[in-house]
Amino acid sequence: MSLSPRKSALRAVVESKALWFAVSAIAALVVLVLIGSSLVRPPAVTVAEAEIGAPAAAGQAKGAAPAAFTPGQRQQVEQIIKKYLVANPEIFLDVQNALEAKMAKEQAEKLKVAIAKNAAEIYRESDASVAGNPDGDITVVEFFDYNCGYCKRGLHDVIKLVDTDPKVRVVFKELPILSKGSEEASHVALAARKQGKYWEMHRAMLSAKGHMNEAAALRIAEKLGLDVEKLKKDMASPEVKEEVAKSEALAKKMGVNGTPHFLVGDRAIPGAPDDLYDQLARNVSELRKQGCSYC
Predict the structure, then answer these.
(1) For 7-36, what is each residue's pLDDT tens digit?
(2) Where in the chain is the domain with CATH 3.40.30.10?
(3) What is the pTM of this model?
(4) What's the CATH fold of domain 119-290?
């Protein structure tokens, strides 16, 4: 998954697995310290014991709070914890996996809320760039960049979905985050839409080798038989620039920071996994059975 170079340094650090591993280790250590403290601290005198006159623990007044760790007790707890962690290092992975699962669940819930809130803009814009059946019953949305290697890799799966499912509708959201050339290519593609050739341009540009920019995109347009002079005029229009800006703003609202990023109903597929087609087809099939009011 190609990430936006404009992503903050803080986010990059937060997403580092090394950092999360360290956080997981610290969290596990804290938990074990707390467990150890409950095992080593002398117990408090209960109310019942006080009432029957049971002797208090040494150095502790009747009904008083438990004594704090002595240096010797603290050292003993630390040694127990260290031995346990060295003997069972897999606990760090268990904690990290649990943390990642919790974060993924929370992120999925946030995504559902964001999709529901912005569903019309995501799935049903009247002037969207579309492939497949314009009146399809289920819509798949892809945020992409023409210079994204993973978008190029995923193109085959998107084409396969369009070719094998006559009822699916695919909407493309331009997210040119990788370079100035990416933005230029997006403008050319959106201008090609005015000539009814968006899908042809989209496939050709993502299939092309090398860096994609205005010059490379115009060469492809000429080979596809587009009116290049009209294309140049249209790509400089306010409508085209506004379309790219709208897609970027929508991606920001959805928390999409990299390409490709697919949305199917209230579900997301970031990147281009090896089984991308299978995931897309399965989600589309499930939504057909369940029903989707906005996709």
Answers:
(1) 433 344 334 444 445 555 555 555 555 555
(2) 119-290
(3) 0.70
(4) Glutaredoxin (3.40.30)
